[in-house]
Amino acid sequence: MDMYVYNKALDLIGVTDQVTSLMWTQRCPLGDTFTAVFPVNENNLKLIRPQMIIEIPGRYSGIITHRSMSGTKGVINVSGCSFDGMLNSRAIADGSYTDSLLTIIDKNLGEAVKNTKRRFECTYVDKTVDCAKLDRETITYMNLGDYASKICNENDLLLRSEIEHGDRNKIRIYARKSADRSINQDANAPVVFSELYYNVSSMDAIYSEEGSINSAFIYSEAESDTVAAWQGEFGDGEGYSRREGVYQIDPVIVYDYKLNKDGDTIWYPVLDRVRTAQRASDFFKNNCSEFTDCIDAAVKLDADYVKRFDVGDIVTVYSSRFGISQDARITEISESFTTSGLSINVTFGEPTKCLKQMIGGR
Questions:
Q1: pLDDT at 134
Q2: Statement: the pTM of the whole predicted model exceeds 0.85
Q3: DSSP characters over 162-178
């Protein structure tokens, strides 16, 4: 396996084929991560350094954010993320609710950013596939990665990034729509994981209510008002199946004014109930989950699986033995390259469902 190494200006500084292991995890809707181990030699010590950009041509590219070296083991350990994963390092300091998602990204790290120190080197934002913001909530100073995840999840979008080669190499950040490849549609070739198709070698069904919350009471102590309570429901749990939680969030305070008898302006805090309720609703969606109803399966894949499905796509999982048939989204694909060959782990299902399948292939 040849790994190309670039500096932050995307100048090629070298190539190494001395890689002990590499695990690359694609995530939905953004933020791939990787870990790698290299033997210590002169070439690797020169190339494998923090902030260097690595590329497996035609497959992956990302930036090294952590490196450790072991003299006793004689190895270099690194970890990092894809370029879109670096959105978590930016706050939203510019943009408005009228901006589309990729316009906000461009204004906070791309070519449109006002503060050049916040700009990602050699990076442009491709707005071919975009999504307008859905509501008028305040987004200023929100984490850009969190905001992008929220909008992508609501619109079946994924953020991707890659090195675009040319006279001057560039990093391209773009969005794409996920595809429905379940058996319940005819727009795309269906993808089914089942023992009937000999691509599942073992399967376990798991049910657990541990840690689940399907109803929450969220309150906020305001400076000049009574407690503002908000209740959220996630699912329809009743009786023993109902799991409740109680949380406190910071209120949204605005200021109004009045004139005293001398005509002076007196400012006083007022609880903004609408925006506080919206904040509580967002908190509930991000922190509450239903019970885990998952399937663990060991399956085999052909080498051309990348042509048939990708992270973010919806596929069908079927087991005649357990009587299970579910359509689930691929939320992670991890490829692990070692001296023994290639193994692949794939996670299916919405994060709150935790529908997980282990996929192994050589």
A1: 66
A2: no
A3: EEE-SSS-EEEEEEEE-
